[in-house]
Amino acid sequence: MLKGNFIDNLPKVYGIYTGGFLGFIIIMSIGEQMGMSAKAIGICFVAFTVAIYAIIGYLSRTAQADAYYVAGRQVPTVFNGMATAADWMSGASFVAMAGGIYFKGYGYMALLVGWTGGYVLVASLLAPYLRKFGCYTVPDFIGTRYGGNLSRFMAVVVLTVASFTYVTAQINATGTIASVALDIPFQYAVYVGLISILLCSMLGGMRGVTWTQVAQYIVLIIAYLLPVFWISNKIGAGFFPHFMLADEVSRIAELEAQFGFVKNSAENLKEVPKGLAGITKAHSAVNATPWAFISLALAMMMGTASLPHVMMRYFTTPSVKAARKSVGWSLFFIFLLYSSAPMLATLSKLSLMDPTLPTGIIGKSISDVQAIDWYQNWNAANLMFVSDFNGNGTLELNEFFMGGKAVVLATPEIAGLPYVISGLVAAGGMAAAMSTADGLILAIANAISHDVYYKIIDPKAETAKRLVVARVLLVVIGFAGATIAALEIQGILGSVIWAFDFAMSGLFFPLVLGVWWKRANKEGAIAGMALGLISGAAYLVWVRTGGSGFLGITQLTFGIFGSAVSLVSMVVVSLMTSEPNAATQKMVDEVRVPSGRSIIGKQ
Amino acid sequence: MSKQEQHWEKSKGLLMMTLAIWFVFSIGIFLFGAEMNEVTGPFGYPLTYWFTCQGSLGIFVILIFWFANRQEKIDEEFGFSERGDD
Predict the structure, then answer these.
(1) ipTM
(2) Is residue A429 part of a domain?
(3) What's the pTM?
């Protein structure tokens, strides 16, 4: 399959793959008609897709450093776009995003703007220049541009802190899905998820991850869009939901006014299982201050441009020109899912809230709701809860609680779609979490094996030895992540947002100024990375331990403080120390010219 | 000014323009989120709501492709473009 002309055959290969996957969905739905159990369908979906990824991972095995680290730099723009989209859209995007929009409305949608707007910064400030540089990893750029082992090492530290925070959440998500679909305890399911993840990346490194991520994107986008379109058609909201839900959005606003947002007493809320929330915020009205919205969006945008697992995807394109275009394709593929999340939230909320719809439960009697099958299932899974706080026997808006994940996972069932869709959604969530986890684990393992081991400890190491070290690290980091995930310390979404803040605190300005400010030097970069990361982390700890914060910077946006410290310290220290030598300045000049050989290739 | 410096001046100009458009649709308009939401936007959604779920996102996609094409033109003008490969 991976012969010389594999790249030319990509559209055909993935076309057949997509057809095969659709065929599999049809077979499963026939199976459902013939009495296949819901559990068997769930197991088939997850097992079948994970097996395919493992096969792709095996076929992509390699013994070459260039293939292992940057997929041989021959990934075409559109396919790299799909791979980046899968790399980018995590279990949180897939499972939790629609839920966040459902519960928090406008204030949460800053994340949609932030997680897309960041790509403009990636395309214009960084990706083409880092591609021209020809580095294997992000710390490779820092280490070569600024010089010295300390700057390289600091970059590895920031990368590891940010990516590791992120990856535990992804392994947690694969574990959650595996435990539901395969019906095994979470503590074991985490390791099942981890092994699936390692199967994709261990043998083929970046090459294996690239081609599995494309396959995972196809699964996750089908799994996300199919239910949205189906539900929209089924409840008669319009055949193309994105353009046709205005009436539904205004109907929700009308119902919100009719039911009102009643505040529950603390005593009543104690009854509600942990992690569940009620609808307390308006769906489409502006419910956050401009600064709350903008600061969150800004933090996510700068974080996007600093996260190494995304940046390294653009090292795999054939040229600088292709790297720029590829960012556009990435965002296009991300847009397909992100623009659908608010539509899913709208459909989900309306089908539960509207008393005139057969699925509506608000305003019905509590005992009727408690007798519904899907309510009992999701209540047993600790994702749904009702209670008659005011004792009137009727379910009010403030008496209905749901987990964030349930919006994506339960809506197909609530809307009366066949179970095969729920199995598909589980496979999609698994694909989303696995692809991101793979990208992150690979980013950390590659940085440590290439930058710390090869560049600092043993520069004479042979390729075979380097790749052994890279693979051992991959497994070690994976297991460390899974072990922490099994402890279930933080929620999925919170730790994802922290990862962005850590990355922007330490890396945003050292990366950007490395290209755009010739005067930036080693001392400045080291100060920027170290002080940025330390001050960001200190702010987080301060706010978490009861500190009041300032300027409206919260624990979700601490990167704004960290990156400001990073910028100031980097500029001040750079100006106080001598300017970079002539060779470095010439290197920066060359980075700015898109044609010609890469910088590192020349040395 | 050398060819390379001119190329960089033009690239910087394009960057500024790109960042200005980016700023407007990622930050600028949300300063007036509450006021804008009173207006009915495309497809009948409240305007700010529409920007957060489709508008800004779509504009970013178009902006990146526009930027990539403009930058390619600049590169070609100064003879810095690479062999065709997409």
Answers:
(1) 0.94
(2) yes
(3) 0.92
Residues A179 and A314 in one domain: yes
DSSP letter string over A272-317? SPTTEE---S-SSS--S-HHHHHHHHHHHHHHHTT-HHHHGGGGGS
Contact check, Cβ <8 Å, A106/B64: no
**Two tokens at A500?**
């962005």
Q: Which residues contact A189 (CB under 8 A, 6 or more apart)?
A: A174, A175, A176, A178, A179, A182
Q: Are residues A231 and A211 in the same domain?
A: yes
Both A108 and A197 in a single domain? yes
- The domain total for chain A is 2
Residue with tokens 């966040």: A100
Considering the domain architecture, whether residues A324 and A353 belong to the same structural domain is answered as no
State how many domains chain B has: 1
Distance from CA of B33 to the nearest CA of A (A): 7
Residue B67 lies in a domain: yes
How many angstroms separate the CA atoms of A540 and A275, rounded? 22
Which of A8, A10, A120, A597 to mutate to test binding with chain B, by most B CBs within 10 Å of its CB? A120
Q: Are residues A26 and A83 in the same domain?
A: yes
For A143-180, the pLDDT digits (tens) are 888 988 889 888 999 998 888 888 888 888 788 778 87
CB spacing of A106 vs B48 below 8 angstroms: yes
Q: What is the pLDDT of residues A264-289, one digit of tens each?
A: 778 777 878 877 888 888 888 888 88
Question: Structural domain of residue A380, as residue ranges?
Answer: 253-282+348-414
Residue A319 to residue B45, Cβ atoms within 8 A = no
pLDDT confidence bin for A236, thresholds 50/70/90: confident
Question: Which of residues 572 through 591 in chain A touch B, CB cutoff 8 A?
Answer: 589
**Which tens digits make up the pLDDT trace of A297-321?**
999 999 999 998 899 899 888 888 8
